[in-house]
Amino acid sequence: MKIDIVSIFPAYFEVLGLSLLGKARNRGLLEVGVHDLRDVTTDKHRTVDGTPAGGGAGMVMKPEPWGVMLDQLLAASPCVGGNAATANAGASVAESTGDAECAVGSAESAATGPLLIFPSPAGEVFNQQMARELATEKHLIFGCGRYEGIDQRVFDEYEQRARVKLISIGDYVLNGGEVATIAMIEAIARLLPGMVGNPESLVEESHEDGLLEYPSYTQPAVWRDRAVPEVLLSGNHRKIAEWRHEQRIARTKRVRPELLTDQTENQQAF
Ligand code: SAM
Prior knowledge:
Residues 1-76, 108-261 form the tRNA methyltransferase TRMD/TRM10-type domain. By secondary structure, the chain is of the alpha/beta class. The protein contains 10 helices and 9 strands.
């Protein structure tokens, strides 16, 4: 999978070189490009924001740098399985449409080309199901907003030429899209084949089948007078599976009752 990220704070993404994500990048499972939006500005102050049309507080991100940057990234996208076009500075999407294998900008690419994701508190709420769907994409481009967000015309423009999604990571407001992008990338990338050592560890996790995970324990058997539940030390796999299933239902009922449906509640332990 290829991921491009556009931000005015590229240093945020240094964490993507750590831990499993860093290893995945070293092994070639994941390719990440981080792009500073200010690099495509043309004025001395590298301006990316302006006052809101119609007045009001704060600043809004100007459309021009986004246009230049996103045109370049779309032109360079490996998109529908063809060869990546060259990311010439200033190359426009229109110029790249001549490449039959990489039909960015065409009607075809609107269905199959790169997916542009703009983190936004006004977007669809991110969840595990969405992470699973996004993990099947070849090329994701994240555009990180700052200030009061990005000029609406950027979304309108690229919706005509590619697939665009506004995604929220929850009902609260962050200062910028960087942390939201990192959270989404981590959730998506850990689902890529070969990413997690034991793929079974993904199956039993919270949100995989609508229930939260059971509580986990390790050694020692007793810590500060708190014992690991006996059943987990019994060696009886059937009983352990039943206990874990009951724990999942009880925890989901207690913490996230809205997740419980007839289907999730009546799932079998094994
Ligand atoms: N004025 C915007 C609104 O009310 O919808 C909020 C702008 S916020 C201060 C700046 C940027 O942070 C947004 O453009 C978005 O990229 C990011 N952001 C803030 N909260 C977010 C959330 N819950 N999920 C995803 N991105 C978020």
